[in-house]
């Protein structure tokens, strides 16, 4: 073995990453070559120096206590934490937890699909309301050729030239892109059209356009109506799933049932607390809407898991 | 080195998986056993896991971040996430790699945040040279405090990927295979980054090694 070859694999040899046979060859070379042995000795000195490195950090008992407290808070949530923390913090924490669990499975009932669409329509409508001027401007200045297959990313509709994929999925993005393209709806909108009772995306857009042409009337469907609709669909799905779960309660042990009931109670509390702000008269809080619908979603998920087992 | 040896005995990977023969129940207080207990809600088991891995994890994060208070916060976050997702761990024998992978994600997320950027140690060659100008002594006589500062600054001066690979290899004594698993880098990238990191670190600490140029 030549010195050049050894120099290439010397660090690997030092780290014990060479195969045994190769390692033996290098060892034999080092025993006979002073220069390569010196290079190896330098690696050893470096490692020795790095091993003397003392960091300005240590594991204190407080560190474990902090970890344990956070874990306990997560486990208790939304029980203990819900009772102690402010509503906003409670909801944020809950939502963060809810978003880490698996989403709906393909086996979910058709009712949940309807709910998801209702949720999208409601959230979209709310975001439209919050977006204000930019949305209106988009509607008032439609793309030059709205009947063609306009690309969702087209600058003609006044959108960012390269939105990220996640943005394209967001209700806000859909809302901003669909209206000028009402003749050629994208897939999510077509899906929504099958469920016109739920105020699908394109219909919401149509209403928004109509609002621009005519003064609002007292009977026009509001954002609150859409949220109420979404909540109602969730409640219906929950009702269906709850019946299934009731039939299966005898399959579970007492501890599981107790935890299950506690979880549902906690979710019900969250829903009750957020409903007031989400469905308040006149001016619903979009953040509360999101939390409330997520709480409903979580409840559906918990029930679905129980119904499936 | 000592703590790493202890970790290798107590929680190192492959100790059970590589054992030939039929499946045997994990011994009491093996990491697999502790994970099983922790999954059942045994808080004491998770405390033992924390006790076993907190030191290498906080060291690793500190090497990546360079700030003590922040490293403590991120160590907390690492273990909270690990606890939260313990049920998602498929290969208990690779717990350590999995945990380091979480720590890596936590550290990198932090490095990308504005907060982290503002706290990141500002390092350039000049600051290292300033230390060198004070008259480095050979490794044997080098004051620990000075050495620590030199290594800390040298580490902070590395690009993030190189620092990650170097830290895992040199300080945490991870195999290439484990580093690939933890970082998601390809093996050639791991080797290249490690080589470059070593070269860069060598250049910075050479004055302290008493080696002729």
Instruction: Please count the helical segments of chain B.
Output: 11
Give the CA-CA distance, first to last residue of chain B. 28 Å
How many H/I helices of chain A? Answer: 15
**What spatial form of chain A do the alpha-carbon principal axes imply?**
elongated
Gyration radius of chain B, rounded: 19 Å
Unreliable stretches of chain A, pLDDT < 50, 5 or more residues? 79-111, 130-201, 214-218
Largest sheet of chain B: none
Number of strands of chain A: 0
Mean pLDDT of chain B: 78
Q: Order of SSEs of chain A, N→C? A: HHHHHHHHHHHHHHH
How does this structure look, described?
The complex is a heterodimer of chains A (309) and B (213). Chain A is built from 15 helices and no strands. With 309 residues, chain A is mainly alpha-helical. The radius of gyration of chain A is 30 Å and the shape is elongated. Chain B is an all-alpha fold. Chain B has helices spanning 2-10, 31-39, 43-65, 68-84, 95-112, 114-119, 125-133, 144-156, 160-171, 176-183, 187-209. In chain B, helix 3 (43-65) crosses helix 5 and helix 5 crosses helix 10. At the A-B interface, helix 3 and helix 4 of A face helix 3, helix 4, helix 8, helix 9 and helix 11 of B.
Quick recap of the structure?
With 309 residues, chain A is mostly helical. Chain A has helices at 3-14, 20-32, 34-51, 61-76, 80-84, 87-100, 110-131, 133-140, 165-169, 171-178, 187-193, 201-213, 223-248, 254-278, 286-308.
What does the secondary structure layout of this molecule look like, with pairings?
The complex is a heterodimer of chains A (309) and B (213).
Chain A: H1 3-14, H2 20-32, H3 34-51, H4 61-76, H5 80-84, H6 87-100, H7 110-131, H8 133-140, H9 165-169, H10 171-178, H11 187-193, H12 201-213, H13 223-248, H14 254-278, H15 286-308
Chain B: H1 2-10, H2 31-39, H3 43-65, H4 68-84, H5 95-112, H6 114-119, H7 125-133, H8 144-156, H9 160-171, H10 176-183, H11 187-209
């Amino acid at each position: 073995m030549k010195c050049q070859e050894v120099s290439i694999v010397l660090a690997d040899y030092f780290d014990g990453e060479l195969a045994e046979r190769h390692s033996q060859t290098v060892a034999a070379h080092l025993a006979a070559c002073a220069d390569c042995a010196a290079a190896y000795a330098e690696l050893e000195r470096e490692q020795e120096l790095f091993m003397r490195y003392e960091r300005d950090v240590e594991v204190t008992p407080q560190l474990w206590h902090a970890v344990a407290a956070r874990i306990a808070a997560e486990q208790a949530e939304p029980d203990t934490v819900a009772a102690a923390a402010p509503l906003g913090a409670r909801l944020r924490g809950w939502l963060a937890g809810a978003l880490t669990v698996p989403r709906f499975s393909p086996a979910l009932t058709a009712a949940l699909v309807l709910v998801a669409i209702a949720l999208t329509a409601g959230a979209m409508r709310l975001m439209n309301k919050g977006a204000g001027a930019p949305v209106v401007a988009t509607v008032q200045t439609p793309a030059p050729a709205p009947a063609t297959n306009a690309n969702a990313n087209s600058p003609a509709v006044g959108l960012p030239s390269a939105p990220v994929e996640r943005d394209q999925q967001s209700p806000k993005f859909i809302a901003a892109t669909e209206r000028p393209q009402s003749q050629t709806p994208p897939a999510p909108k077509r899906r929504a059209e099958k469920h016109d009772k739920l105020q699908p995306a394109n219909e919401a857009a149509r209403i928004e356009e109509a609002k621009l042409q005519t003064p609002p009337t007292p009977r026009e469907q509001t954002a609150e109506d859409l949220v109420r609709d979404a909540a109602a669909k969730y409640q219906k799905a929950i009702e269906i799933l709850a019946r299934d779960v009731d039939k299966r309660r005898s399959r579970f042990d007492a501890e599981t049932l107790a935890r299950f009931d506690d979880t549902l109670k906690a979710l019900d509390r969250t829903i009750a607390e957020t409903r007031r702000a989400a469905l308040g008269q006149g001016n619903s809080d979009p953040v509360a809407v999101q939390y409330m619908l997520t709480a409903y979603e979580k409840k559906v998920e918990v029930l679905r898991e129980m119904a499936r087992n | 080195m000592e703590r790493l040896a202890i970790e290798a005995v107590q929680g190192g990977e492959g100790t059970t998986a590589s054992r030939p023969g039929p499946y045997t129940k994990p011994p009491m207080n093996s990491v697999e056993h502790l994970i099983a207990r922790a999954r059942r809600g045994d808080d004491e088991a998770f405390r033992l896991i924390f006790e076993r891995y907190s030191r290498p994890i906080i060291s690793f994060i500190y090497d990546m971040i360079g700030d003590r208070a922040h490293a403590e916060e991120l160590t907390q976050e690492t273990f909270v996430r690990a606890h939260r997702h313990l049920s998602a761990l498929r290969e208990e024998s690779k717990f350590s790699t999995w945990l380091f992978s979480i720590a890596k994600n936590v550290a990198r997320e932090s490095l990308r945040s504005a907060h982290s950027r503002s706290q990141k140690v500002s390092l350039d060659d000049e600051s290292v040279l300033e230390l060198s100008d004070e008259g480095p002594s050979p490794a044997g006589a080098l004051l620990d405090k000075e050495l620590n500062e030199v290594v800390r600054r040298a580490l902070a001066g590395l690009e993030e990927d190189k620092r990650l690979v170097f830290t895992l290899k040199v300080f945490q004594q991870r195999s290439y295979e484990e580093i690939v698993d933890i970082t998601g880098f390809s093996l050639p990238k791991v080797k290249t980054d490690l080589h470059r990191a070593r070269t860069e670190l060598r250049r910075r600490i050479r004055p302290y090694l008493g080696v002729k140029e």
